[in-house]
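Holo prediction. Input below; ligand is iron/sulfur cluster.
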Amino acid sequence: MLKELIDQFYIDNQKNRDQTKFYITDAGKCPRAVFFKFKNAPKEPMDARILRIFEHGENIHRNIYNILYRLRMGVVTEVSIPSQEIISGRADAILCVGNENYVLDIKSINSMIFRKMQGPKEENILQIQLYLHFFNIKKGILLYIDKDQQEMKEFFVDYDEKQEMKEFFVDYDETLCKSLLDKFYVLKDQVEKNIVPARLADYPKNWQCNYCQFKDVCKLANGETINWEDFKKKIEAQSQTA
Ligand code: SF4
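Structure of the complex:
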């Protein structure tokens, strides 16, 4: 009884904002899934359990902010990138340690993934690279927190000098940032011209497909680019026969 009420509370109160711009967290995401978000394509509802996991992650972030302030290091939290035409984003924090500025990105993950981690996740590297790019800061920290066991791992993103623990360092990469931004411009063009992007090359094995809220819609189209207006008619026809 109570369980159902709590679940319903989460479902009723979930943020369901329309996507009208790109976010740094879209870097590395499937372009087709981002396109579907822009077009408000039909999607699987989010499970109440997943919503609670997100909320737990937000609480972990807040706890870390609190500790950072109490450590009395120079810190500002939830800092938006300078506004420009293509992308928005908010870094978790900018810290000053030893007269050096760092962008901090906090990720809470489950124990199983945490234990296996030898280095930062690819998509997290792409995101922090863009923060470094827009803040013009050359150093960053990816802080991972095991939300089940409360262990932590940190990985550094550094601009140039050689580091002793080299495997834990990733250079700020201007070329990579430019290519990520180019991809956003291509997707912006596809959104404006109503062209549904192709599926991920390794669909459906890519991990993103497992968690994708648009997988049913995606299945209706083939793997290539397709006109959104034509595809929308197919989705509507399908929902009438269902
Ligand atoms: S199912 Fe996979 S390829 Fe299709 S939209 Fe989702 S993430 Fe992209």
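Residues 163-167 have pLDDT under 50 and may be disordered. That is the main takeaway for now.
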